[in-house]
Structures are given as C-alpha cells and as structure tokens.
Amino acid sequence: MGKRVLITGLATFWGGLVAKALEQDPGIDVLVGLDTREPTVELERTEYVRTDENYSILSRIVRAAKVDTIVHTFLVVDSTMMRARTMHEINVIGTMNLFAAASQPGSAVRSVVVKSSSYVYGAAKEDPVWFTEETPRSHPPRRRVERSLEAVEGYVRDFALDNPHVNVTLLRFSNVLGPDIVTPLSRALELPLVPKLFGYDPRFQFVHEDDVIRSILFVLERELPGIYNVAGDGLLPWTEVAHIAGKRTIPLPPIGATWAAQPLRLFGVELPDELLDLLRFGRGVDNRRLKAAGFRYHYTSAGAVQAFVEAVRLRHAVGSTQPTYRYERDVEQFFRHSPAVVREGDP
Amino acid sequence: MAETLNNLREPQADSPESASLVPVPASEAASQEEPPLEDPRLSDVDEWGRSEHMREIARRVYDPMYRYWFRAEWEGLENIPTDGGALLVANHAAAIPSDAPVIIHGIETELGRPVYGLADQLFRTMPVIGVYWARLGGVVAHPDNAYRLLREQKQLVLVFPEGSKGPAKHYSQRYRLRRFGRGGFVEIAMRAGVPVIPIAVVGAEESMPIVYKSPTLAKLLGLPYFPITANQLVFGPLLGTVMYFPAKFRLKVLEPVYFDVPPDQDRYSKSRIMDESEKIREKIQEALYDMLRERRSVWFG
Question: A226-240, A323-337, B11-25 — which is least confidently predicted?
Fold first, then answer.
C-alpha cells in the first residue's frame, strides 16, 4: 500500500510545487491538499480541500483519508504578505490544530515534515557567523515572524516528544531566491537601485527554490527525523548580491531604518524589521547536517542569486514565462472523477 | 570556501591534459567526488567577511607605518607554526589599540599566513568601521567562530583576553596586565586542540596613552570607555584622535603552550582552565617586565 499524503498550504508557492513533485511518485496513493484559497498550479491527481485558516475540519480529513504523511508547508515567513493576526492564525493556531489532528487516537500519521525558516535564529550583533541546528538564539525573538515561528517549532517539538512513533522532520530554510519565487528580497533586487543600510554590508546566504523542493522530497523519502538547516554553500556580502544582479545600491540611514524604508512601499517593496536586521547583521546557517545525510545541493548561495538574475533578464526580454492557471472546480472534478476519463492503471 | 572551489576548478581548465584530444582518465578521487558547484562570486570576501584583496591594499598602505613609524621588531617568530591552527594571545593597549594591526600586519607579511582577529561585537554595530573591520580580518569573538577558524579551517587567530579592560587602562597602569577574562581562550584552544602562543608587545602603551577617562560620556555613547589621550593634548582634538606617537614596537613571541587534553570535549575542568589562563598571563607579564628592563628609550627601543 502506498503513502497517503496531506499537504497544507496547497495554494502557496511551496505547497503547489511539492504537490506537483509528489504526484510523480508512484509510491504515493493519495494526495490531499488543504488551503484557504484555490491552487495556483495545475495538479493532476491532488485532491484540493478548502479550509479556514486554522484547519478546524482537519481532524475529520486526517481520519477520513487515513493520512499517514503530513507535509506542513503552510507557514508564513514573509510578514509583508498579511496582517499579524492572520499570520498568527495560520502559523500558530494552524500548526496547533494540525498536530492535534495528527495525534488524535486512531490517527494513522507516521511521518511529518515541517517547513520552517532560519528566521528562528534571529540576527543580532552577538551572533556567531554560522548557526548550527543546535545554536540557541542570542536574544528572545522580538519580530513577529520570529515569535510566530518559535511558537510553531515549540509545537513541533512537543508533538515529536509526545509521539515517538512518528517521524518528525523540521527543515529551516535560509532566504530563498530563484526563477519564480517572489519575496521582499527578490523585489528589492529588482529595483533600479537596491536598498542597503548605510555603513553595513552583512553576509547573506541563499537557497535556490529547486533545492528547497528537492530537500523536502529528500527528507520525505528517507524519513529523516530531526532538525535540518537548508541553505546554499557560502555567504556573500549584500553589495555583491546587488552587483551580481547588475545593480547599484542606495543607502538607507541605519538609524530609524524602519521609517526610512517606508517610501520603498511606493515601489512595491516592503522591508520588514526582520529583514532590516538581516541587512544590518546578516546570518549564516550551517548546512552540513543535511549534506551528511546524503543531500546534494544544486546551487551555492551565489549560484542561487545568479539563477534569479538570469530569470529576471529572461522575463524582461520575453515577458512572463509562467503559464497562468485558474482553478476551475468543475473541470478538476471531471478530470479526477468522471468515468469518461481514461486513467492509467484502469482496466 | 569560494576560494577553494575556484582553486579546484581553475587549474584543471588550464592544465595541458584537458586540452589534449585523447580522453585522460579522471583520477580516482575526482570520479567519486561530485563536480564542484558553479559559484559565480564577484568578490573574494570570505564567510568571515575578510577579503584578501582588501588586506593586500591595507598591507601596502600600512607598511610605512609599521616599518618607519613604529619600527616594529619581532623576536621568536619561529614559535608561530607555518601551518595548522594556533591561538595567538597578546597584551592589549592604547586608547585605539595599535597592537592588533601591528601583530596582524607583521605575521601576514613575515609568515604569509592570514590572521583573523577576534574582537568585541561592538565593531559589528558600527557603521562603515564595522565593514572595514570585517574585511580586514575582524571576527566577532564568539566561541563558535573561534572553534571553526581554529579547528576546522586551521587558521591563526589573534585574541586579546584582557578585552577592553586592556586599552581602557590609565597611562599610570601601563604594562600591568588586567584579568584574562574568564579564561575562555584557554577553553577554546583546548576544544580546538590547538596551542596557545603568547605574544608580549612593548610600545603600544606609549603610542596613545590615556590621561583621562569620562565614564559619563562613555555611558552616554554606549562605549566601553571614553578616553582623553595625550595625543589629543599634543596634536589637537581631531588629529590627536587618530595619530599615534611613534613609540618603538618590540614584539616577542613566547614558547607555544600545549594543553595535554583531548579536543572536542563538552566540558573542561574549570580550575585547569583558570590555572592555564593565569600561567599564560604571568608568562606575558614576566616577558614584558624583561623587555622593559632592557628598553632604554620609549622612542628608540
């Protein structure tokens, strides 16, 4: 019998891509995707279920579909996407309900993968250059994303302790760049002048979006328990990142940077406090544990920046390269359930 | 890391084998290893923020200062290993410490090995200065940073265990070593399995002596100390802040101290650490007194 997988955040960038990749895996019988919005990528056999933000119907789904694997990609790391309250609902309350459903009596869940972020380490002047999975933060979290992710990781730890028979993997990703993903940093790098903090040139680390997906599939396949940093090799100064993008930088005043960054909103770029911390002190996470487990990265930090820059150039030359897709319920129902559709494996 | 990747890639492209038409069998190791990833770096800034290119420029600019202003002279340089990690430990002095650049410049030019200097995180918070500090080899004094540099990357690391208490001394306290912190440097050297190499520096104290300290201003500015220096009295408030007196520098590298303990332990005996730390402090203090006994002039040595 194959795996029965539940993916949270199907409409998010990561949820959609993970679902798409898992559909290729013949070892997976059932794929169920949850989200508040409709999926944005075309999916062959993933069943989409609309839920509210905090998954109140989750325990019913877990029971009914006998889900044995959960991929929790619905964690909001970009605090510019929504209000603090919504983010709290999705991250903290959503995770709490997810684990409550997964640990209910009779639950078939045996494996959980959570996509967290290296934001849980913070960025402060006392920090070491490299954070390993065990390095503690040097300060209690002050930024709301960091607080929210720390609460989430607390639930993950509790769940792992209470359910020793379940394989729990926590992945902490560094800042992602790549051809398709849009983040505040990628928007900042698309500006004619890239913002930086005057007098600071911290080292950044990036991970390519393909490596993110590959690492999720990798830990799913190997059922690796524990915490893993996922980040490209090497750190590079922010000004060098801008130079790879072929851009000059524009300095923001280091004092009162939160206010100084406000006008950037006019250009569609919002730099939240946790990013301003990064632009001041930078952060490196040690990626050797996942490598030791056998994972091979395809991109270094600089390579991820390069891939992003090349994709931007292509977009500028030929316009959007992404086919637009709109989820149509009736069409999807037809393809999945109509007897008129000939499916592989059918007699 | 970027540098090693480049080093791995470039010689192969230039070597005659790769140009020949007959396929040359790849070496055993190369066929098993994955090819190095493409790493399109534009600068040579390493993970610690140090740039060899910037060091090169700094060495060129600083060399006259080292040679003709401070006229630095070394003794016992052979005690610094030419390969493998080692923790260099020295006394610390002058309102804006002049000893760190002299030691780093001296070792880099004499031995051709890079030196990373551990320092207070205060540098990291200072705009502009912090960037250059890092490019020139400054690293935040975090035990994890020191361990990686010493054990994994086998580098030379310089640390001043007195911390800011050394440079903050009033001139009347010159060449009297302060407490060596809590012996953290000994613990790091033990964990990293590297020797501690004590260095006694004479000359820094007189290059920018502190005649008065204002605790109120220091507190207000968030600095560890706020000094009025003799240089400011002589050269005026602006020039005096950056201009050193041409004191003669003499540096003596003492015998390396090896700790006979296995590396990578979680804990090391605290009393042993404090003992070793105190012994090293005394060695440097004695060497300083010896050197001062022989010194005839502050300016000519």
Answer: B11-25
What is the pLDDT confidence band of residue A333, given thresholds at 50, 70 and 90?
Answer: confident
Q: Is the pLDDT of residue A55 over 90?
A: no
- What's the CATH code of the domain at B128? 3.40.1130
List C-alpha distances in Å: B115 to A236, B63, B104.
Answer: 20, 16, 6
* pLDDT(A308) > 80: yes
Q: Domain check: are B97 and B182 in the same one?
A: yes
Q: Looking at this protein, which amino acid is placed at residue A116?
A: S
pLDDT at A116 over 60: yes
Question: Domain coordinates of chain A in residue numbers?
Answer: 3-337
Q: Is residue B140 one of the residues assigned to a domain?
A: yes
Whether residue B137 lies within 8 A of chain A, CB to CB, comes out as no
Fold of A3-337: Rossmann fold (3.40.50)
Given this model, what pLDDT does residue B33 score?
64
User: What mean pLDDT do residues A106-133 have?
Assistant: 93
Distance from CA of A298 to the nearest CA of B (A): 7
Domain that holds residue B128: 52-294
Beta carbons of A299 and A211 less than 8 angstroms apart: yes
Same domain, B6 and B111: no
Nearest residue in chain B measured CA to CA from A285: B47
Q: Is the pLDDT of residue B26 over 60?
A: no
To the nearest whole number, what is the mean pLDDT of chain B? 89
B24 and B92 both lie in a single domain:
no
Q: Are residues B102 and B213 located together in one domain of the fold?
A: yes
ipTM: 0.87
Percent of chain B having pLDDT more than 70?
Answer: 89
- Cβ contact, residue pair A235, B47, below 8 Å: yes
Structural domains counted in chain B: 2
E strand intervals along B102-214: 115-119, 138-140, 156-159, 196-202, 210-213
The answer to whether residues B18 and B87 belong to one domain is no
The partner residue sitting opposite B39, judged by closest CB among A198, A199, A302, is A302
Q: Which of B124, B155, B188 is best to mutate for the A interface (most A CBs within 10 A)?
A: B124
The 10s digit of each residue's pLDDT in A168-197 is 999 999 999 999 899 999 999 999 999 999
Nearest chain B CA: its distance from A304 CA (Å): 9
A57-60 contacts, C-beta under 8 A, 24 or more apart: A58/A34, A58/A97, A58/A98, A58/A100, A58/A101, A59/A97, A59/A100, A59/A101, A59/A104
B198 in A contact zone (CB under 8 Å): no
Q: Does B34 touch chain A (CB under 8 A)?
A: yes
Regarding whether B157 and B82 lie in a shared domain, the answer is: yes
Q: Are residues B13 and B142 in the same domain?
A: no
Answer yes or no: are the C-beta atoms of A81 and A16 closer than 8 Å.
no
